[in-house]
Design goal:
The chain is α+β, with helices and mostly antiparallel strands and 207 residues long. The chain is 19% helix and 30% strand. The protein has a 4-stranded antiparallel β-sheet with strand order 4-3-6-7. A 3-stranded antiparallel β-sheet has the order 1-2-5, with no helix packed on it. The chain has a two-stranded antiparallel sheet with strand order 8-9.
Length: 207
Amino acid sequence: RWALAALVMAAAAASPGCGKKGPPLPPLRITPRPAQNVHVRQTGADVVIEAGVSLSRTDGTPLGPGAAVRVLRMRPTPTLRPGAVSPRYLMSVFQREAKVLGTLAGQALQQAAPDGHLVFRDSGALPEARQTRLLRFMYGIQIVDERGERSALSTPVEIEVMEPPRPPVNLAATTAEGEVRVAWESGDPSRTGEIYNVYRRPASREG
């Protein structure tokens, strides 16, 4: 009798109808992968926005020929800026109020991000700052696939623009004793403490 009872209990435990079922899960939403490592800097009069973009969806499939990258911008306030409020609140306000500064698609997108490294130049920030005397801007990036699905916004990054120094003048390069010597003069002799970056690249027929 005991052996028969144990056999009945084991069969009941193995029955598929006795497991606990949870609520049905929603289908997994496939969206574009968000931009990564977004940062901004000022070069001359332009604000340069750079980011890593994979141009693929969260399941690894390509975004398609109709994909686009949107660059958004808005002004921060003393109480609404990175570090002053929670990232979640900042993202929600930025998503509602930021304006699309530019949309890159097709050939323009391929030129701006040929190897997954996006470079976008904003030439309008400094003229606007001159007019309004408001020098700070926030930027974010969002990626849209050919079906209109949008990625999560990148975390907004902030920059304060300023009047750039005048470019150097009378640049000259000479070779001597196995080295190249580069000389120039300041574009604004009244400035002091200037730091110069010297760049080099291979020459090409296109310049």
